C-alpha cells in the first residue's frame, strides 16, 4: 500500500508567479501549500480572488506563518488574525500557529504548527503534548538538526504519535535533517513538504525530486532502509 505523499510549498512575491507555481506543483505533488506570508499585501488579495474563482487541481493548504515561526515579513498578530478571518472557504486545510488557532472558520482540516529554529528537539514531547490539547486535525512539528543524531527526537515523536493515533507531520530542518523529509512517511508522517523553485524552510528538497528521485509516493511501511556512512556523505550516489 502506497502511503507517501508530497506537499508542494509555493512561495512567490506576486500572484501571477504563485499561479504559475501552483500549476507546476499540481503536476508533481498530492497537496499544495500556499505561503501567503510571502506575498505583498495587494498581491495576496489578488491571489485569493483567483483561487476563489478558479480553485486548483490539487487540495490546497493555506499558510500565513508568524515571523518567529519562519514567516517572511513583519506581519503582526493582528494582521495574521485579519487574514484568517477573511480567508473564507475553498481550502482543504489551514496551517495555524498556537496564537491564532482559535480563529473561527469553515475549513475541513486544521493543522497546528510549531517550528523551533533554536532547538534540536529537546522539548519535542512537551510541545507535542501542549499542541495535542488543542485537538487539531494534524500536528506539525519541526526542529533544527545540526547532526543526524539530532533527528532522533523526530523519529521518537512519530512513533509516539502513531501509538495514540494522532495524525502528525514531523520534520528536522537543515541539511542534516533531510533524511526525515524523505523517510518521514515510512515512519508515520502524513506527507513530506517539497519546494517549487524557492525553498520555504532550511533543507527542503524540491517536490520534483521527492517524487521522481526519492520516489516518496511509492514508499510504504515495508520499504527497506539502508544506510551509507561517509564524510562527506552528501557526495555519495
What would you note in describing this structure?
- The model has no long low-confidence stretch (mean pLDDT 91).
- The protein has helices at 15-28, 41-54, 77-87, 124-132, 152-163, 178-183, 207-212; strands at residues 6-10, 31-35, 60-63, 93-96, 109-115, 138-144, 168-173, 192-195, 205-206.
- α1 links the parallel β1 and β2.
- The chain is of the alpha/beta class.
- The chain contains 7 helices and 9 strands.
Structure summary:
With 237 residues, the protein is an alpha/beta fold. The protein has helices at 15-28, 41-54, 77-87, 124-132, 152-163, 178-183, 207-212; strands at residues 6-10, 31-35, 60-63, 93-96, 109-115, 138-144, 168-173, 192-195, 205-206. It has a nine-stranded parallel β-sheet.
Amino acid at each position: 500500500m502506497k502511503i507517501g505523499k508530497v506537499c508542494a510549498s509555493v512561495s512567490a512575491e506576486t500572484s501571477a508567479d504563485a499561479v504559475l507555481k501552483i500549476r507546476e506543483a499540481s503536476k508533481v505533488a498530492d497537496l499544495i501549500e500556499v505561503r501567503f506570508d510571502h506575498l505583498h499585501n495587494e498581491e495576496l488579495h489578488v491571489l485569493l480572488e483567483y483561487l476563489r474563482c478558479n480553485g486548483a487541481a490539487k487540495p490546497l493548504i493555506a499558510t500565513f506563518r508568524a515571523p518567529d515561526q519562519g514567516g517572511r515579513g513583519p506581519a503582526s498578530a493582528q494582521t495574521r488574525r485579519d487574514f484568517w478571518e477573511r480567508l473564507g472557504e475553498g481550502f482543504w486545510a489551514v496551517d495555524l500557529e498556537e496564537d491564532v488557532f482559535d480563529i473561527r472558520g469553515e475549513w475541513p482540516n486544521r493543522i497546528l504548527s510549531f517550528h523551533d529554529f533554536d532547538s534540536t528537539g529537546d522539548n519535542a514531547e512537551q510541545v507535542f503534548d501542549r499542541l495535542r490539547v488543542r485537538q487539531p486535525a494534524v500536528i506539525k512539528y519541526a526542529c533544527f538538526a545540526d547532526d543526524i543524531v539530532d533527528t532522533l527526537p523526530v523519529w521518537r515523536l512519530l512513533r509516539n504519535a502513531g501509538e495514540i493515533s494522532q495524525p502528525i507531520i514531523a520534520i528536522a530542518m537543515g541539511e542534516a535533517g533531510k533524511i526525515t523529509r524523505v523517510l518521514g512517511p515510512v515512519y508515520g508522517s502524513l506527507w513530506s513538504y517539497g519546494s517549487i523553485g524557492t525553498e520555504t524552510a532550511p533543507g527542503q528538497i524540491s517536490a520534483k525530486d521527492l517524487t521522481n528521485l526519492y520516489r516518496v509516493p511509492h514508499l510504504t511501511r515495508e520499504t527497506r532502509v539502508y544506510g551509507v556512512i561517509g564524510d562527506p556523505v552528501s557526495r555519495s550516489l
